[in-house]
């Protein structure tokens, strides 16, 4: 595995999962092999002629430099995949497929594609933030440069979509079109969310409302975490129409809770499992909920100091510590936790509206607790 | 852009009527995308919370606006191909927006990828947020075509819709892979690259120019997959011929010497004199450290090629260009159809003899 070869695999993968409930952990363990098989089939060790044909649709007239193709396009995502992860997205897909009577074993390519999309897209987050670490190893742009990480991320994401645009699950045409329609809408949401966030950060916008923040966050992240997986699994499994919209809302609520938990962890990691440098949101000047909260409620003097630190993109521990102190002083963590709990509660209310078994509802609720309250990475 | 790469393209290939059609369609779409109400109702859809449209406007519309009503020349190829391949219907004009936006998004991505700030040998993490903002604005510009397609702006049947969508993704992936390979080769300073590999990557790298519009025309015209595959092969030969032509003219200093910085960088994959460099085995004794920029490599290669070139080398390059164009016309004859398109291309490339 590339991660191990380079000596970067420093995280204990079990630590990532340690806060899962026993039931969820059992479900995870039971499906892990299928998920890993799906990833291997979606993301081969190398690009050969037939794989190139499958994803590009081109007729190659000459020999290709498949080694360079593999290194440039597959390797960066592979390095992230090899470092492990929570694999919550494919796990959710399994849960929803089973809940509506479909067999996850018949959809392994989907499980793999969802995880590969996620791992390709987080490369973009990493180079946007200039981050150093991801899952305990160096970020892709640190290993392959910005252009290399960008090309690998964008192309890798498109390759992972092959399961949909090539209809590799042999679905009916109208269902394929529904999935492609959803995918198209979701990727546009992602881009708009990303544009907003970049603009707020780049232009040091200090008046972002909670509603705007939530819209940006959900647009940018909910597709992969978790609205997309829930929606696709529901559609493919033939869930009732009324359940599809509930699943989408669950995905959004789950994402908000998950994201708020992530923002809190960024500023105050609970353990080494976090696998990233603490306080990156401060050093990148990101307008997270905690930062927006302070901009709204801090005293004039504190607000001015916060703006100075954010605008300077200060990376020193003293500056980060100062922002942390302000978050504590104004009750930011408590506010953010409360909001996360509210969304966790909304998730659970919606879960109970689904036409699935009680045991599966229980697992979904445990998933929500894990994502929004218990996770440490 | 095609008029920058092919002398006489506007005058000898393009039709005035198509030019007007393209300009009108792009202007109309540009206006729609600047309209927050249109964005909200037709693109974004119902929102649970609140969008910050002011930021969206400044972070997207203003950045990509200058590209949104440009005519790259690609749509002219599409319109002429479609007319010869099958029936032209007004709704097929929507492809103009799809092709042009996807193409200009790829130029923005190229500029981002080959910008010096992202290639410099700086061990510290660097962040060029303004450029990243432009990149993501470009990314949306590239996603919008798929949105139009999948909402069936073309009014085609389900099967054709899925095929056109797949082709858009195929082109994006082909283009992306070619950039990845190019970046790897830049790092190795073109050492251990074979001529064949360079040829194939050049075809992949230029897929947005001819493969994209011509194949799109065939799919919309309802050509079956077997015939489309044959057409892909034919157009790949055309692409390679054009690439060699651009390379030869770049060596001679005839290819848009007054290109601005933006276009110079974005078009580097096309003007890189790799064929001549590899043909004369002008490689460097040691591979670089992976941090050289494409712009720097381009200059070094051009200097090396120019300092060592002989008339015979240029003649060889021109021979290859003719040979590949000949393969294109042969294949097109075998497939049947599009003789007008081939003739007009031959006309502006000065290759009338090849098809006579």
In short:
The complex is a heterodimer of chains A (377) and B (356). Chain A is mainly alpha-helical. Chain A contains 19 helices and two strands.
What does this structure look like?
The complex is a heterodimer of chains A (377) and B (356). In chain A, β1 and β2 (137-138) form a beta hairpin. Chain A contains 19 helices and two strands. In chain A, strands 1-2 form a two-stranded antiparallel sheet. The two termini of chain A are 22 Å apart. Chain A is globular. Chain A has helices spanning 2-5, 13-17, 22-42, 49-56, 66-82, 88-99, 108-129, 140-160, 162-165, 173-202, 210-221, 223-237, 241-267, 280-283, 289-297, 300-312, 317-329, 332-351, 358-374; strands spanning 133-134, 137-138. Chain A has a single domain (2-374), classed as Farnesyl Diphosphate Synthase, CATH 1.10.600.10. With 377 residues, chain A is mostly helical. Mean pLDDT of chain B is 87; it is low at 121-126. With 356 residues, chain B is an all-alpha fold. Chain B is globular. In chain B, 71% of the residues lie in helices and 0% in strands. Chain B has helices at residues 2-5, 9-13, 16-33, 36-44, 53-64, 74-85, 94-113, 129-150, 158-187, 195-205, 211-220, 225-251, 261-266, 268-271, 274-279, 294-308, 311-335, 339-349, 352-355. Chain B has one domain: Farnesyl Diphosphate Synthase (Orthogonal Bundle). Chains A and B meet through α4, α5, α7, α8 and α10 of A and α5, α7, α8, α9 and α10 of B.
């Amino acid at each position: 595995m590339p991660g191990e070869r380079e000596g970067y695999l420093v995280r204990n993968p079990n630590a990532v999962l340690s806060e899962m409930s026993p039931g969820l952990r059992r479900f995870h363990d039971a499906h892990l092999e299928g998920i890993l098989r799906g990833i291997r089939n979606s993301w081969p060790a190398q690009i050969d002629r037939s794989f190139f044909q499958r994803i590009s649709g081109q007729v190659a007239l000459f020999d290709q430099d498949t080694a360079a193709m593999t290194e440039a396009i597959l390797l960066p995502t592979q390095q992230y995949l090899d470092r492990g992860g929570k694999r919550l997205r494919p796990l959710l897909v399994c849960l929803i497929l089973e809940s509506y009577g479909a067999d996850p074993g018949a959809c392994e390519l989907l499980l793999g594609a969802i995880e590969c999309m996620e791992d390709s897209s987080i490369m973009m987050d990493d180079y946007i933030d200039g981050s150093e670490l991801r899952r305990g190893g160096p970020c892709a742009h640190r290993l392959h440069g910005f252009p290399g990480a960008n090309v690998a991320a964008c192309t890798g994401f498109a390759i992972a979509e092959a399961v949909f645009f090539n209809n590799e699950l042999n679905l009916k045409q109208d269902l394929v079109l529904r999935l492609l329609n959803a995918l198209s809408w979701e990727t546009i949401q992602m881009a708009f969310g990303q544009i907003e966030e970049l603009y707020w950060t780049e232009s040091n916008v200090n008046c972002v409302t909670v509603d705007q923040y939530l819209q940006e966050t959900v647009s940018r992240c909910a597709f992969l975490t978790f609205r997309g997986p829930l929606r696709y699994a529901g559609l493919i499994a033939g869930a009732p129409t009324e359940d599809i919209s509930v699943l989408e809302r669950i995905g959004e609520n789950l994402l908000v809770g998950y994201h708020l938990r992530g923002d809190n962890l960024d500023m105050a990691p609970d353990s080494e499992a976090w696998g990233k440098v603490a306080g990156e949101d401060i050093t990148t000047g990101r307008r997270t909920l905690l930062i927006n909260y302070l901009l709204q409620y801090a005293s004039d003097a504190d607000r001015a100091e916060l703006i100075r630190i954010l605008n300077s993109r200060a990376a020193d521990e003293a500056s980060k510590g100062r922002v942390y102190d302000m978050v504590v002083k104004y009750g930011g963590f408590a506010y953010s936790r409360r909001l996360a709990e509210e969304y966790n509660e909304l998730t659970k209310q919606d879960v109970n509206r689904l036409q699935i078994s009680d045991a599966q509802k229980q697992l979904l609720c445990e998933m929500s607790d894990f994502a929004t309250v218990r996770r440490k990475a | 852009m095609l008029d920058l790469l092919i002398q006489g393209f506007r005058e000898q290939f393009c039709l005035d009527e198509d030019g007007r059609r393209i300009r009108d369609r792009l202007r109309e779409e540009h206006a729609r995308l600047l309209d927050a109400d249109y964005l909200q109702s037709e693109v974004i859809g119902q929102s649970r919370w609140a969008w910050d449209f002011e930021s969206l406007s400044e972070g997207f519309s203003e950045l990509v606006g200058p590209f949104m009503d440009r005519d790259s020349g690609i749509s002219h190829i599409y319109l002429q191909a479609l007319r010869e391949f099958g029936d032209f219907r007004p709704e097929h004009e929507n492809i103009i927006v799809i092709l042009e936006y996807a193409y200009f998004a790829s130029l923005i991505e190229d500029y981002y990828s080959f910008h010096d700030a992202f290639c410099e040998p700086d061990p510290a993490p660097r962040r060029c947020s303004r450029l990243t903002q432009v990149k993501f604005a470009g990314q949306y510009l590239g996603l919008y075509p798929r949105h139009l397609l999948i909402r069936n702006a073309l009014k085609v049947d389900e099967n054709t819709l899925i095929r056109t969508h797949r082709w858009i993704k195929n082109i994006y992936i082909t283009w992306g892979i070619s950039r990845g390979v190019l970046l790897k080769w830049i790092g190795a300073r073109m050492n251990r690259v074979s001529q064949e590999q360079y040829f194939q990557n050049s075809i992949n790298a230029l897929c947005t120019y001819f493969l994209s519009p011509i194949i799109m025309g065939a799919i919309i015209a309802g050509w079956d997959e077997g015939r489309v595959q044959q057409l892909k092969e034919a157009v790949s030969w055309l692409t390679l011929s054009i690439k060699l032509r651009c390379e030869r003219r770049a060596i001679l200093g005839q290819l848009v010497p007054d290109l601005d910085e933006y276009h110079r960088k974005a078009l580097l994959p096309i003007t890189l004199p790799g064929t001549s460099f590899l043909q004369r085995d002008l490689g460097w004794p040691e591979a670089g450290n992976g941090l050289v920029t494409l712009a720097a490599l381009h200059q070094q290669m051009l200097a090396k090629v120019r300092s060592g070139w002989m008339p015979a080398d240029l003649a060889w390059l021109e021979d290859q260009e003719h040979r590949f164009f000949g393969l294109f016309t042969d294949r097109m004859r075998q497939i049947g159809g599009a003789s007008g398109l081939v003739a007009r291309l031959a006309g502006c490339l000065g290759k009338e003899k090849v098809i006579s």
